[in-house]
Specification:
- Residues 51-74 are annotated as: Disordered.
- Residues 51-67 have a biased composition (Acidic residues).
- The protein is mostly helical.
- It has two helices and no strands.
- It has helices at 2-7, 10-73.
- It starts with a helix and ends with a helix.
């Protein structure tokens, strides 16, 4: 009974939780360190794609406006 109380005491559980959290933080930091460059590349690709979509939309709007002007003139 004394061994069980010692093994499952609050202090023991707190040390376990602290160690578990430190290990988790270390793993997350390592993963982020290894993937940061790839994430930045993916974000840049998405930003480039969104910019090109906006440019295409602007060109479509300009051509629609020009066609509308021609229709009004004719």
């Amino acid at each position: 009974m004394a061994k069980a109380v010692k093994d499952y005491a609050i202090e023991y559980c707190c040390d376990y939780i602290k160690a578990k959290n430190l290990l988790r933080d270390k793993i997350v930091a390592k993963v982020l360190e290894n993937t940061q460059e790839k994430l930045m590349e993916l974000l840049q690709n998405d930003l480039d794609w969104m910019s090109s979509e906006e440019e295409d939309d602007d060109l479509d709007l300009e051509s629609d406006m020009e066609e509308g002007d021609r229709t009004l003139e004719g």
